């Protein structure tokens, strides 16, 4: 595998490592964990909604100069981000995988493969060749002789690799009491509170299932007034069941030996408000509303979902990628990775028209961008930008008004001022 060979190329032979010392006194050995809660359909649906939305993002390498002007540099990064970060995933697959691993383990490790190029001035440059989301079952944090932090990744195949922590893109969720890992104190998902809700919900669902089965199974008691042996009782019951099956009129003929007493079962089911409360507790845990989960949301509901749930992930992805990919000097030069929301097709038609009016009058959109927002194909000459003349620079307002006054005077027979 290309990934396995890439890891082997990063191994440093003959190096001795010791456990990294943590301020809280804990040994930094973490096992990936988080399978228990994923048996719930509500949990899986919530994560699927978030992962699907994040997978629509388009990561880009941009560079911002001192004047605030942004440019998209040509190079391997944008080529990888546009279609396929690695040979087995598209960009959509890659982002969806990253989100699922993040919610599964509250930590996700992404390994960037690269080739080192020698520059004419003697410096070295990294040419990135791929990005791989990893799913190790155990992670150790160790230090070499120089005190540099490394991460040792153990995989279920039996392989393990020790890589400088600065070369790994590490994204965390609920980064709180642990010094390195997201989640709880042991660097694992802290789902205790959610598990209680899911256990109650599961008990309620099982009770509903049993109540329905009971109400449909026992319908009555047949009392046989004579002494019969087991075989005779079975035969009598069989005869009675045949009467049940063939009783089209609903009246069962029973002889003097039998006495049938119907049983009226009235199982008590959980009320709708309780079921709704249990489900909403899970939705609130993940920041997903019922409207988002059912895909029947308004522009305002999606905007709230984006700002509260998606935007922190978008910002975290950009900062984590930028921190690892670029050197401090490259960051100072304005290089960064930004995850753009490629389009706003989720908007209603009225919201799109409002956006076109506002952004179009300001000259922020090209004709092709306007067409794309409405779902139309581009034009050959669609890179033109148009702007409304109803807006004027605040610094030119006085001169503009003075010019109009002078023209008005000229119309009255006076010589207009230049």
Automatic annotation (TrEMBL):
InterPro entries: Phage/GTA_portal. Pfam families: Phage_portal. It comes from the Bacteria. This is HK97 family phage portal protein. It comes from Paenibacillus eucommiae.
């Amino acid at each position: 595998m290309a990934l396995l060979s890439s890891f082997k190329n990063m191994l440093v032979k003959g190096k001795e490592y010791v456990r990294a010392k943590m301020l809280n006194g804990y040994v930094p050995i973490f096992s990936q964990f988080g399978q228990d809660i994923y048996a719930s359909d509500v949990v899986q649906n919530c994560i699927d909604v978030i992962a699907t939305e994040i997978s629509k993002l388009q990561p880009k390498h941009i560079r911002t100069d001192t004047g605030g002007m942004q440019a998209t540099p040509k190079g391997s990064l944008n080529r990888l981000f546009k279609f396929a970060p690695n040979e087995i995933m598209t960009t959509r697959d890659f982002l969806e995988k990253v989100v699922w691993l993040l919610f599964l383990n509250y930590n996700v490790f992404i390994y960037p493969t690269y080739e080192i190029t020698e520059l004419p001035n003697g410096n070295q440059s990294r040419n990135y060749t791929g990005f791989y989301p990893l799913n190790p079952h155990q992670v150790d944090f160790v230090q070499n002789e120089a005190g540099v932090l490394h991460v040792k990744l153990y995989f279920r195949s039996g392989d393990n690799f020790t890589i400088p922590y600065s070369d790994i893109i590490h994204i965390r969720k609920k980064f709180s009491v642990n010094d390195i890992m997201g989640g709880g104190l042991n660097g694992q998902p802290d789902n205790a509170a959610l598990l209680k809700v899911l256990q109650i919900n599961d008990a309620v669902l099982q009770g509903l299932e049993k109540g329905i089965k009971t109400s449909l199974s026992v319908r009555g008691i047949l009392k046989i007034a004579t002494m019969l042996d087991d075989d005779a009782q079975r035969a009598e019951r069989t005869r009675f069941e045949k009467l049940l099956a063939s009783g089209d009129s609903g009246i069962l003929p029973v002889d003097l030996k039998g006495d049938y007493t119907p049983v009226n079962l009235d199982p008590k089911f959980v009320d709708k408000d309780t079921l709704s409360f249990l489900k909403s507790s899970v939705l609130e845990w993940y920041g997903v509303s019922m409207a988002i989960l059912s895909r029947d949301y308004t522009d305002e509901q999606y905007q709230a979902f984006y700002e509260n749930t998606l935007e922190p992930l978008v910002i975290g992805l950009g900062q984590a990628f930028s921190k690892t990919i670029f050197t401090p000097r490259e960051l100072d030069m304005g290089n960064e990775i930004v995850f753009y929301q490629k389009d706003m097709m989720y908007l209603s038609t009225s919201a799109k028209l409002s956006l076109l009016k506002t952004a179009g009058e300001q000259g922020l959109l090209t004709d092709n961008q306007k067409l794309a927002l409405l779902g139309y194909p581009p034009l050959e000459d669609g890179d033109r930008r148009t702007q409304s003349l109803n807006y004027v620079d605040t610094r030119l307002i006085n001169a503009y008004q003075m010019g109009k006054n002078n023209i008005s005077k000229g119309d009255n027979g006076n010589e207009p001022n230049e």
